[in-house]
Amino acid sequence: MRVIAGEFRSRPLKSLEGLEVRPTPDRLRQTLFDVTALEVEGAVFLDAYAGTGAVGIEALSRGAERAIFIEKNKNAVAVIEQNLSSLKIASRARVIPGSAKIYLAAQKADIAFVDPPYELEGEYRMALEALAQNGTGLVIAQHDRRTLLEAAYGELNRTREIRQGDNVLSFFRRA
Fold this sequence. Notes:
By secondary structure, this protein is of the alpha/beta class. The chain contains 5 helices and 8 strands, in the order H-E-H-E-H-E-H-E-H-E-E-E-E.
């Protein structure tokens, strides 16, 4: 796995062996940041269910001011911290080791990316409702094509969907 573009382009990122996390594919990350390019610069970016931190690190590479990572898997938290340290950007990041259910509502960000484990389908509703309440302006949810998300969660309305294979990016903007 590597950083796709920006300041840290082509720099390698550590990952976890096995099925503990499901990293966002490079092509899907590229699409995500092609769509949000103008909004990421100077933004506070929240990477919930962060896994290896690749999406939040990509945001930092592309000019986000700060990134917040929420991840409950202790091994994944260690990998995020190692990746941030190797790129010398730990000062621009906050890593929260714990459940998104506990911390998400209190984390204000300009842009949030949510990608819970696909088997935890109920997490999408909880995450999107929490982000709708805390004022986040843009939320991108990565989900399986068989997972059907609502058209709106509070003041967040789905404005776009991009499908790549079995993956879908659903974009929700504040009304």
